[in-house]
Amino acid sequence: MHVEVAAALPAATPAPAGDLDARAKRVAEQAARHADAVDREGRFPAEAVAALKAERLFGIQVPRSLGGEGASMSEIAELCAVLGRACSAAAMVFAMHHIKLASLVTHGLDSAWHCTLMERIAAEQMLIASSTTEAGIGGDLRNSLCAVEVEGDTFRLTKEASVISYGAQADLILATARRHKEAATSDQVLVALLADQITLERTSVWDTLGMRGTCSDGFLLKAEGLPVAQVLQKPFAEIAAQSMLAASHLLWGSVWFGISSYAVDRARAFVQAEARKKPGQVPPGALRLAEAANELQAMKSTVVAGLARYEAAKGDPDALSAIGFSIMLNNVKTTVSVQAVDIVQRALSVVGIMGYKNGTPFSLGRQLRDVLSAPLMINNDRILSNTANLLLVQKGSGKLLSA
Ligand SMILES: Cc1cc2nc3c(=O)[nH]c(=O)nc-3n(C[C@H](O)[C@H](O)[C@H](O)COP(=O)(O)OP(=O)(O)OC[C@H]3O[C@@H](n4cnc5c(N)ncnc54)[C@H](O)[C@@H]3O)c2cc1C
Known about the structure:
With 403 residues, the chain is an alpha+beta fold. Helix content is 51%, strand content 12%. The chain has 12 helices and 8 strands. Helix 6 packs parallel to helix 9 and helix 9 runs antiparallel to helix 11. The longest helix has 42 residues. The protein is globular and about 80 Å long. Flavin-adenine dinucleotide binds next to helix 4, strand 1 and helix 12.
């Protein structure tokens, strides 16, 4: 089946009123209102996603020349943190969409097919999902078993995709696969698949401890007779190193910062209320709060420094592919994912039973369950072992203000 990427694009719609922060805050209000129901029912955060589309926040990273707003990674990270305070699942959907879009924006500009796709993403606010995880490979992003099978100018692909967040709701899936049937498992490409071009047969249901609203079910993904132009020609190894690694670790980290900062705010409000009850006395939880605030600041510094390094390296493939840059990004992920869990736990110990109970102004159960996914989402051990390999050949500079 051939499907044209776009026959006619809708006329450009102007961005809604207010700056990006104002638009994200309006989405966050919607997301917060439904966050408990999304978690309890393990359902897609449909209200938040509708609000993201209404605020046209799915297209902001697309270059202005293609109908977007040319938003930077730092601007998107800020929005991830705002949403993370309201609903972790909605924030993660937003982050994952922009991680995928970063690969298109960084590596798709020399492909007419992918440029038209980006115009559609901005115009129609299409939602992008990711399929890297595969049965038999697990979270090993840099290997695939499934392969693109080319026949003439079309291809077919069958993938046992064991986790695709919001796969059933996405308009587009970017999937990794081997370049061809004889290719090595590490010789991968990234393929753009429109929802109406593929079949998805559900193979597992996402009934999890936390992040329940990402609806990350397993699917047997099948595509047939699609134009070869939909395969990004650049090796996935370069896409991973130059855009996906940075976008994943920095935007995930920003979501986790949002969750953690919400927890610390709850703990601060609790301690302040205690202090008002007994003037002149420092409540016992204040010391734990100080520790949590201390760690939150360290977490923020790590994410912000990573964003600054990324913005400085952006557009320079050598800098983005440098060993030191990869190690820095790996360290951001492994550090902040552990800090996020620790901070929410500390906040919970400050508010005590009021945080452990659901339905109080200080409840932190949902945030704790959600944030426990952070060290597992590409397992920290897997990332650390990658860093260990890189360290075997890295030359350290020992400088404070540069790599
Ligand atoms: C909320 C959420 C959303 C997700 N959404 C998506 C999505 O949209 N698309 C997608 O493709 N995937 C998604 N994933 C999956 C994710 O990206 C990882 O693939 C997955 O979390 C890894 O699962 P795993 O622990 O079974 O696999 P593995 O990474 O294979 O790890 C299994 C075990 O092996 C150990 N291990 C593996 N390799 C090493 C190593 N080299 N050194 C030491 N120990 C090692 C780990 O410690 C771990 O205990 C999502 C995950 C989460 C939590």
